[in-house]
Amino acid sequence: MTEIFQDSPLRVADYSFNSRLLVGTGKYRDFDETGEAIAASGAEVVTFAVRRTNLGQDADAPNLLDVVSPERFTLLPNTAGCYNAKDAVRTCRLARELLDGHKLVKLEVLGDDSTLYPNVVETLKAAETLVADGFDVMVYTSDDPIVARELEAIGCCAVMPLGSLIGSGLGIQNPWNVRLIIEQAQVPVLVDAGIGTASEAALAMELGCDGVLMNSAIAHAREPVLMAQAMKHAVEAGRQAFLAGRMPRRERAEASSPFAGRINA
């Protein structure tokens, strides 16, 4: 009997995860929908914007921790909304205080409001400071293989190149660069930003990515909970297809049932 496939865990710094899908918490109608979608996704890592999320600072507002329990999920505070290294570092330190010493963070330093493209110069500065300060840094960056290599050299525990612009849903616009980043990396590579539907998540995994992080693709779907389920299956299928190895591409047809050895009537 064929054995049931079991993948190795995704390892990031000292953490180990069975799911390779990481999800965000923004843009849902309310926290109830957020919780339902996250549960349906099967994700174990949940990221949130420290500057925009109530973790108990406001006793009169809904608290994210009521639907995303730190006992069930690994929280990944991120620096969304930061446009320079100084603000990003301050935000990560605030998250560490709010979460009792939690050191796994997602660093993103944006270049402008219109593209939300990463400012790689400020990202490199912030990464260097945070790693030196003891943080485990998962870093959002451009799809530039040289920048990705520099971030890994600094000590980032995961490199997260964009597939396309944040919230665009345009999919992976430059798969060749993503492949180059994967081929050189010794740390996990996860596509972050731009995924719009399940086939694009599967493609990221088929390229060899270690995981995918998404928010808008689920939250902006007509049925977010159903899309969360679709993304769960897409990431799993793409990972299995990558490990299985696709058939070679050929310029000519090749019959599934060849003539050689055919039984003639």
Topology overview:
Layout: E1 10-12, E2 15-17, E3 21-24, H1 31-41, E4 45-49, E5 74-78, H2 85-98, E6 104-107, H3 120-132, E7 136-141, H4 145-154, E8 158-161, H5 175-184, E9 190-192, H6 198-206, E10 211-214, H7 216-219, H8 224-244
Parallel strand pairs: 3-4, 3-10, 4-5, 6-7, 7-8, 9-10
Antiparallel strand pairs: 1-2
Helix pairs in contact: 1-8, 2-3, 3-4, 4-5, 6-8
Task: Describe the protein's architecture and organization.
This protein has 265 residues and is of the alpha/beta class. The protein has one domain (17-244): TIM Barrel (Alpha-Beta Barrel), CATH 3.20.20.70. It has helices at 31-41, 85-98, 120-132, 145-154, 175-184, 198-206, 216-219, 224-244, and strands at residues 10-12, 15-17, 21-24, 45-49, 74-78, 104-107, 136-141, 158-161, 190-192, 211-214. A five-stranded parallel beta sheet has the order 5-4-3-10-9. A three-stranded parallel beta sheet has the order 6-7-8. Strand 3, helix 1 and strand 4 form a beta-alpha-beta unit. The protein is globular and about 80 Å long. The mean pLDDT is 91.
